[in-house]
Specification:
The protein is about 20% helix and about 25% strand. The chain is of the alpha/beta class.
C-alpha cells in the first residue's frame, strides 16, 4: 500500500533548462506539470538532457527528453495491466491483491510480449530513439512500481502515460474508451510519419479503441493485438 503514497508540492513554478534555453510552467494542485515548448535551435532526433528545478530551490533534477524526427518509423502503443503484466483487472479482488500487496519483483510478466516488442522496434534504425508508448488506465500514483516492473524486465526505453485520477484537469475515471482515444489521437497527431502497432487485452475497451483507430487511420495503424485474459491467447488484427 505504501507505493500509493506521495508527497506533492502543489501549484509550484517549474523551470526547465534545455540546450541553454529556459522555460517555466505552473504545476497543478497535485504537483503535475506539462511543458509545450518550441526551441529556437533545431534539435536532432535522439535524447537530450533536461534540467528541472522548482522555483527558489537549488536542486536540479536531470532527465532525458525523447526527440522523434520526421523519419518514417514504427511505434508501439500498449496497454499495461493484463497486456504486459498479469493483473486480473476483471476480478476486482484479485486486482487489489496484485496491485496493493505485491511488489514489482513478485508480479508476473505476460509471456512473449517483450519479445514481440523487440522484434517490432528492430525495424527502426539502430540510432533512432525508442518509439514505445505505454498507455495505462492506472493512476499516476503507480508510476514508481510500474517503472520498477518495466526496468526489472528490461523493457526498451519508453514513455509511460498514466491517468490523472483526481484534482484539476483529471482524466475520465471510468470511461476507458474516452481516456485512451484522447491520448492515442494526440500521439498520432504528434508523430504523423509513424506507423503504429497497438497491444491490449480483452478485459476492458482495448479492442474497441484500436479498431476505432484502424478504421480512422488505416494506413497509419498497421496491426493491433489483443490478449484474451482468460485463455492468454494473443490475437492479431490487421484488417478493418
Amino acid at each position: 500500500v505504501r507505493q500509493l503514497e506521495s508527497n506533492e508540492i502543489s501549484d509550484a513554478k517549474i523551470i526547465a533548462s534545455i540546450q541553454g534555453e529556459t522555460f517555466s510552467v505552473q504545476g497543478d494542485d497535485e504537483g503535475y506539470f506539462e511543458f509545450n515548448i518550441t526551441l529556437d535551435k533545431a534539435v536532432k532526433a535522439g535524447y537530450i538532457d533536461v534540467g528541472l528545478t522548482i522555483e527558489n530551490n537549488a536542486y536540479v533534477h536531470h532527465t532525458l527528453a525523447t526527440i522523434i524526427g520526421d523519419q518514417k518509423l514504427v511505434g508501439i502503443i500498449s496497454d499495461f495491466d493484463d497486456t504486459l503484466i498479469i493483473s486480473e483487472v476483471t476480478d476486482k479482488m484479485e486486482l487489489a491483491k496484485n496491485t496493493l500487496f505485491k511488489n514489482y519483483k513478485q508480479r508476473v510478466l505476460v509471456p512473449g510480449m517483450l519479445e514481440r516488442f523487440r522484434k517490432i522496434l528492430s525495424k527502426n534504425p539502430n540510432d533512432t530513439p525508442s518509439t514505445l508508448f505505454i498507455l495505462s488506465g492506472s493512476p499516476q500514483q503507480l508510476f514508481t512500481p510500474i517503472e520498477g516492473f518495466l526496468d526489472f524486465h528490461h523493457f526498451p526505453k519508453h514513455t509511460l502515460i498514466l491517468k490523472k485520477a483526481h484534482g484539476d484537469n483529471k482524466d475520465p475515471l471510468t470511461d476507458q474508451f474516452a481516456y485512451k482515444t484522447e491520448k492515442i489521437e494526440r500521439l498520432i497527431r504528434l508523430y504523423p510519419h509513424m506507423r503504429w502497432f497497438m497491444f491490449g487485452d480483452s478485459g476492458e475497451k482495448d479492442r474497441e479503441v484500436y479498431r476505432h483507430f484502424k478504421e480512422k487511420y488505416p494506413h497509419k495503424v498497421m496491426n493491433y493485438y489483443i490478449r484474451d485474459v482468460v485463455s492468454g491467447e494473443i490475437k492479431e488484427y490487421n484488417k478493418i
